[in-house]
Amino acid sequence: MIAYIKGTLDSIEGERVFVEAYGVGYDIVCPNPFAFQTLIGQEVKIFTFHYVREDAQLLYGFKRPEEKLLFSKLLNVSGIGPKGALAVLATTSVADIVGAIEREDEKFLTSFPGVGKKTARQMILDLKGKLTEWLPVEQDETTLFFDGDVTTGETTQLVEDAIEALKALGYSERELKKIRQELQKHTLNSVDDYVRKGLALMLQQ
């Protein structure tokens, strides 16, 4: 098992990031690869899950260890494969997912691509009560990186950076125009948060 990879972020292509470590290039599939966009050319540490099946071996990568852990838990839920687990993690935070499971919020859980009522119910049955320790982790990590309120000007810049990241993911200017105003209504702390929110809004179109 490869627990994490630490090296230079070489490039981002589609759903993948490419990291070079000791002369080896690693192809890593991420739920939101453009969370790493500002780190190209810099050293990064990506927490990885080595997925092995008969016809392929894939590395899935995450910015935070709790995202990797939740991914592994989701894979154990009947009806959820790697693609579905990535879709869940791409559009919201670990805290939001855990909160929805604890509240038995099927409506929230079925908003994810490929998650129907049966799968949402299975997520609740399998995971409720087993993930609550992760709620303060998400909150504490946010506190570490952000001190103070985000200003209007900062919000605008974060939204514009998020829009650029979404363009790189393949969304058109026309599609993004529909969600730009909605994104401006939210006060979030990072480009990553706005990209997640934008992806969630796209799913509602």
Automatic annotation (TrEMBL):
Name one cellular component (GO) term. Answer: Holliday junction helicase complex
Q: Where in the cell is it found?
A: Cytoplasm
The chain positions of domain Helix-hairpin-helix DNA-binding motif class read: 72-91, 107-126
What's the domain of life for this entry? Bacteria
* Keyword hit for 4Fe-4S: no
Outline the segment boundaries, as ranges, of region: Domain III. 154-205
Query: Where is the major localization of this protein?
Result: cytoplasm
InterPro entries found in the cross-reference section: DNA_helicase_Holl-junc_RuvA_I, Hlx-hairpin-Hlx_DNA-bd_motif, NA-bd_OB-fold, RuvA, RuvA_2-like, RuvA_C, RuvA_C_sf
Q: Name one GO molecular function term.
A: four-way junction DNA binding
Record flagged with keyword Methyltransferase: no
Q: Per UniProt, which keywords does this protein have?
A: ATP-binding, Cytoplasm, DNA damage, DNA recombination, DNA repair, DNA-binding, Helicase, Hydrolase, Nucleotide-binding
One of the GO biological process terms:
DNA repair
Q: Which family does it belong to?
A: Belongs to the RuvA family.
Q: What does this protein do?
A: The RuvA-RuvB-RuvC complex processes Holliday junction (HJ) DNA during genetic recombination and DNA repair, while the RuvA-RuvB complex plays an important role in the rescue of blocked DNA replication forks via replication fork reversal (RFR). RuvA specifically binds to HJ cruciform DNA, conferring on it an open structure. The RuvB hexamer acts as an ATP-dependent pump, pulling dsDNA into and through the RuvAB complex. HJ branch migration allows RuvC to scan DNA until it finds its consensus sequence, where it cleaves and resolves the cruciform DNA.
**Domain-related comment:** Has three domains with a flexible linker between the domains II and III and assumes an 'L' shape. Domain III is highly mobile and contacts RuvB.
What NCBIfam families would the database entry show? ruvA
Assembly and interaction partners = Homotetramer. Forms an RuvA(8)-RuvB(12)-Holliday junction (HJ) complex. HJ DNA is sandwiched between 2 RuvA tetramers; dsDNA enters through RuvA and exits via RuvB. An RuvB hexamer assembles on each DNA strand where it exits the tetramer. Each RuvB hexamer is contacted by two RuvA subunits (via domain III) on 2 adjacent RuvB subunits; this complex drives branch migration. In the full resolvosome a probable DNA-RuvA(4)-RuvB(12)-RuvC(2) complex forms which resolves the HJ.
Stated name of the protein: Holliday junction branch migration complex subunit RuvA
Source organism of this protein record? Pontibacillus halophilus JSM 076056 = DSM 19796
- Tell me the name of the encoding gene: ruvA
